[in-house]
Design brief:
Elements: H1 2-21, E1 30-34, H2 40-48, E2 53-56, H3 59-68, E3 75-78, H4 87-93, E4 96-100, H5 103-112, E5 120-125, H6 142-150, E6 155-161, H7 170-186, E7 194-196, H8 203-208, E8 213-216, H9 218-221
Parallel strand pairs: 1-2, 1-8, 2-3, 3-4, 4-5, 5-6, 6-7
Helix pairs in contact: 4-5
The chain binds pyridoxal-5'-phosphate (PLP).
Pyridoxal-5'-phosphate binds next to strand 8 and helix 9.
Length: 225
């Protein structure tokens, strides 16, 4: 699996270079390996090459990989759409959830987070640019939802996640991230330190606009079926 290891190194170079180009501090951007549809054996290869953070979209698939990789010290991120009947398992088996888009889901995650675990790190998913993706809250509702979620005991509100409409233009890729970054900064809450921005096709724009976590699937593991 030399291509996977090569891709991982290449991504680290690209992230490091973007940090320099856009005056971001060194190591301020975390690479989240998005492993949906990929077998546990591929995650194991990435792990052995040093990767520790993995993102999954589908609960059952994630749980079976977690079982297979139980011996590894992996930080698991849930990044897919959340149905209410899945919150208990998500709250029990993940360290981070990036795709929280309602108070109802946030409350359930807080109530169902097992007491022996640290608070669950969450990001609110914000729908910044598009009609195409129905997921995420409107930017207008961000401030209020932050207030409501911040008081929940077993989750820790860390920041925001966004999936803008795809674009080939760097400028257009930057614009929605810039808007959302500024909106979060305007809330004046230093505990909101996480910007889950950027995927394989727009990670430079995302890093330019303040990403602290980039969620990379295709550029690391190859195309999905
Ligand atoms: C699949 C997925 C990614 C990774 O996308 P790539 O374009 O393959 O890098 C990132 N974020 C979310 C929420 C995803 O569902």
């Amino acid at each position: 699996m030399t291509t996977l290891i090569h891709s991982l190194k290449q991504l680290h170079r690209q992230i490091r270079q973007a940090e320099i180009s856009y005056q971001r501090p060194p190591n301020s951007v975390l690479l989240l390996a998005v492993s949906k549809t990929k077998p546990a054996s591929m995650l194991a290869i990435a792990y052995q090459a040093g990767q520790r953070h993995f993102g999954e979209n589908y609960l059952q698939e994630a749980l079976s990989k977690q079982q297979a990789l139980g011996a590894f010290d992996i930080t698991w991120h849930f990044i897919g759409p959340i149905q209410s009947n899945k919150t208990k398992a998500i709250a029990s088996h993940f360290d981070w959830v990036h795709s929280v888009d309602s108070l109802k889901i946030a409350r359930r995650l807080s109530e169902q987070r097992p007491q022996h675990l640290a608070p669950l790190n969450i990001c609110l998913q914000v729908n910044i640019s598009n009609e195409a993706s129905k997921s995420g809250i409107d930017l207008d509702n961000l401030a209020e939802l932050c207030e409501q979620v911040a008081v929940l005991p077993n989750i820790k509100l860390r920041g925001v996640m966004a999936i803008p409409a795809p674009s080939d233009s760097f400028e257009q890729q930057c614009q929605p991230y810039k808007t959302l970054y500024q909106a979060v900064k305007n809330l004046n809450k230093p505990e909101l330190d996480t910007f889950s921005f950027g995927m394989s096709d727009d990670l430079n724009a995302a890093i330019a606009q303040g990403a602290t976590i980039v969620r990379i699937g295709t550029a690391l593991f190859g195309k999905r079926p």
